[in-house]
Amino acid sequence: MKSRFVIAVSLVVASLQGLADSSNLVTTTWNGFKRDEFKLNGVNCIVVAPAQPSKGASWVWRPEFFGHEPQSDIALLSNGFFAVYINMSNSFGCPKAMEQMDTFYDHLRKTYNVGEKCTLSGFSRGGLYSLNFAARRPERVACIYLDNAVCDFKSWPGGKGKGKGSKGDWLKLQKNYGFETEQAALDYKLNPIDNLKSIAEKKIPIMGVCGDSDKTVPYEENFKIVKERYQALGGPITEIMKPGCDHHPHSLKDPTPIVDFILKANQK
Predict the structure, then answer these.
(1) Does the pLDDT at position 139 exceed 60?
(2) Integer Cα distance of 33 and 159 in angstroms
(3) Euclidean distance between CA atoms 113 and 52, whole angstroms
């Protein structure tokens, strides 16, 4: 019989590695592909598997809004990519969310044998998760696709520029990040637009699909700044501008340019 000490240590190790509750595994289909839904440390997760994984078991990770305008994800699944999601409860890419992403990453590598590097697909506020994770773990990222993405939380939800922001989300963001005052949030040094160096050093390709009339997440306060600063750091970045387009609709009706960008980055 195991001692209480051994059992306790085993539980701690398992907790650190991430616990998937197999009793809650539900397997269905999503757009014709096998979909697993389960809980990891009590958090809802989704893994959609291709019919035949690519040679490198490539994968695309949507941190927020899984299933919204899914045309690029469906095309990537047809090209052998996994499509994955973990529900981080609208936490705006805060440090706790980064820990959840680390745990999910480890679980995917161990359980689904996905490749070492993922494609991050940041729609709207998903840009905060994507850029923060890439800055934290650049060795784990093949490329980043940003779609009308939040790149500066002072712009949204802060509303400190042209956009109206979101007061409720701004207060929630401050709580999630542990800021005691609004000024602490404004002074934060690791906002994505200020934290691109480690991504650029790894030459991680970034693509932005942007509406030039986005009133919710203004282009000038978000992706435009990322593009200018990333280029100055020597990072590869490209942009597809949608003239006259507001925050919605996201993506492109024909996702071929997005898919081609992601396939090329992963082939490297």
Answers:
(1) yes
(2) 40
(3) 13
